[in-house]
Design brief:
Shape: elongated
CATH superfamily of the largest domain: Alanine racemase
Pfam families: Ala_racemase_C, Ala_racemase_N
Structural class: alpha/beta
GO molecular function: alanine racemase activity; pyridoxal phosphate binding
Domain Alanine racemase C-terminal: 239-366
Distance between the termini: 24 Å
Order of helices and strands: EHEHHEHEHEHEHEHEHEEEEEEEEEEHHE
CATH topology of the largest domain: TIM Barrel
Number of strands: 19
Cofactor: pyridoxal 5'-phosphate
InterPro entries: Ala_racemase, Ala_racemase/Decarboxylase_C, Ala_racemase_C, Ala_racemase_N, Ala_racemase_pyridoxalP-BS, PLP-binding_barrel
Number of helices: 11
Strand order of the largest sheet: 8-7-6-5-4-3-2-9
Length: 372
């Protein structure tokens, strides 16, 4: 009745597009938040098969889920509970992004308990002012890291940060701060392999900041990180198509109100089609009366208020029947509304649209290997 069709081959294709743009840098494929709604394990398997260098997740629980699913690729997790003990992460070979001395000490304790060398990436805050050590904390973090390296508890694999994507001037200032922090680390005698700063947007905009690795998230899923550009401009292919089937149609006279609040009233005798997708599936309520869907290749506005389980489309006198396929969004190259279109209608971004899709949707995967 409701289906998310995930094209894993499109994801592998997008990885190759972004790998070519990375100019020889390693690519960390970001699969946090259930791979932006696409299915973390299935996407990670496809990326691993396609030779991705790293997988990126937000937290250790996500990383452990990947390990339990048999994913062997290097995994980096960077958002941690203040009281995390890190033992299980080290036992499963998870690399850790760290930004404060407390977490470094906890990781060293876990290394001592497990007898495993902890591979860590140190994060400097270059201006996003979220996770990361401040400039004032940086030298102290480096000093502790050097001591723990000398004791044989940790290996510093990389230094990283994250751009704010506010504008070119702000991004360039962050790149300069990052380069300065890296130089301080080098001058302190700390050895590391990787620098990584840019995500999908920065990787496209600032080739000088691709360094040894780039982190690619939304572009993997065939979506542009820029609100004023379409993914097709970068050669990317959208990987998610959201569909449902009409559950009921009815003829109603002119002047009838439709669904909660009568946002729509029929202008003439017409056919109303009921679609069983609502905000419980992640369809934004704010898109009511503004988003459109496709039926038989024709686009229709969502006439009614989007409810928890359903919405209504006024299809006029068109031949629409119960069981007909409705495309809520997909690849605009096929003539259907895109995730970007829905994002504009809801006043949000494409990242949120695909990530929030779930609820009672079933996921169907195209391009799975025989081993999946």
């Amino acid at each position: 009745m409701r289906e998310l069709i995930i094209d894993l081959d499109a994801i592998a294709y997008n990885l190759e597009v972004m790998r070519k743009r990375a100019g020889g840098a390693k690519v960390c494929g970001v699969v946090k938040a259930n791979a932006y709604g696409h299915g973390m394990v299935e996407v990670a398997r496809k990326l691993e098969d396609a030779g991705v260098d790293y997988l990126g997740v937000a937290d250790i629980a996500e990383a452990l889920e990947l390990r339990r699913a048999g994913i062997d690729a290097p995994i980096l997790a960077w958002l941690h509970d203040p009281h995390e003990m890190f033992v299980e992460a080290l036992n499963e070979g998870i690399e850790l992004g760290l930004a404060n001395e407390d977490h470094l000490n906890r990781v060293a304790a876990a290394a001592e308990i497990t007898g495993r060398l902890a591979r860590v990436h140190l994060k400097i805050d270059t201006g996003l002012n979220r996770n990361g050590a401040t400039a004032g904390e940086w030298e102290g973090l480096l000093r502790l890291a050097r001591a723990l390296v000398a004791e044989g508890f940790i290996q510093v694999v990389g230094i990283f940060s994250h751009l704010s994507s506010t504008g070119e001037a702000e991004d360039l200032a962050q790149i300069e701060r990052f380069d300065s922090a890296v130089e301080i680390a080098r001058e302190s005698g700390l050895q590391f392999e990787l620098r990584h700063l840019t995500a999908s947007d920065g990787s496209m905009s600032y080739p000088q900041a691709q360094y040894e690795m780039v982190r690619v998230g939304v572009a993997l899923y065939g979506l542009s990180p820029f609100s004023d550009n379409k993914a097709s401009a970068y050669g990317l292919r959208p990987a998610m198509t959201a569909t449902a089937h009409v559950t009921q149609v009815k003829r109603v006279p002119a002047g009838e109100g439709v669904s909660y609040g009568y946002m729509h009233r029929t202008a003439a005798e017409t056919t109303l089609a009921l679609i069983p997708v609502g905000y419980a599936e992640g369809l934004p309520r704010d898109a009511s009366g503004k988003a459109s869907v496709s039926i038989h290749g024709k686009t229709y506005p969502i006439s009614s208020r989007i409810a928890m389980d359903q919405f209504v489309v006024d299809v006029g006198n068109d031949d629409v029947n119960a069981g007909d396929l409705v495309t809520i969004f997909g690849d605009p190259a096929s003539g259907v509304p895109s995730a970007d279109d829905l994002a504009v209608a809801a006043g949000t971004i494409n990242y949120e649209i695909v990530t929030r899709m779930g609820g009672r949707f079933n996921r169907t995967y195209l391009g799975q290997s025989d081993l999946d």
